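Predict fold of Carboxylesterase family protein; 285 aa.
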Amino acid sequence: MKHSFFISRLFFLLFFLAFAFACQENSEPEILPARDLLNISYGTDSRQTMDVFLPAGRSTATTPTLIYIHGGAWIDGDKSEFLQVKSIMEKEFEGFALISLNYRLYDFALNKNLIPDQEKDIESAIAYIKSQLNDWKIADIQVISGASAGGHLALLHAYKRNVSSIKAAIAFFPPTDLSALYGFNNLTSLGLSAVVGGTPSENPEKYREVSPTTHIDSQDVPTIFFHGDVDTVVPITQSELLKAGLEQKNVRHQFTKVPGQGHGFTQATYSTLIAEARAFIGDIN
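Predicted 3D structure, encoded as tokens:
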């Protein structure tokens, strides 16, 4: 009787273990759904916010991030600018988390939020992103990008900080040497005097500190950049100066001149150029 009871219990136990093992074998790993996180604060100022677009199926091992910084001459603009190219980015940078940043804009009335303050915002935003890697299930791998003033801030961060997690930079019609840009026209001179703090002759070191070309060295990340040849806001010579600096330091780069287009491109052009950027960057880790 006892022997029979023991056999029955053993049979039940073996059956249960086999069933549990089969369920474990057949279970699918959890696939995280896509998720949008809007107006996430990375600081105490109302402008220190970001929009975060997390892809489905992401993981801390395999999901890099593309960070986008908007333009607006350091005095205007908004992270919603990214929506103009979001669908293209989602197609070409499939599997990437996409993040669009706001930063403190220069205030003429109070003479505050100069470019060095905006630099700190980019640094703080990236530090915040790093603090969320586990919660958002993304990898510590970033491509930094931006247009116009945003392209300037993206390049400045990539070259000046040399953060190991930044793997590449993409810039659309960026200011790169602010001393050389200063005399382009009266509006440029007025604006740069405000956001940098004085003229290049008054404060040459300030202009050097906030110019991406000053900080180029041989360890800088691969950089791809685009500029229209009829740009009347930021002249194409700014990208030519960047190209010369990258060549001198043997930094991998690609410069595409966009014929017949100015400060901003058509959707068709953006589609072509963003695909070009993705091909240039290739696999990153």
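Residues 1-28 have pLDDT under 50 and may be disordered.
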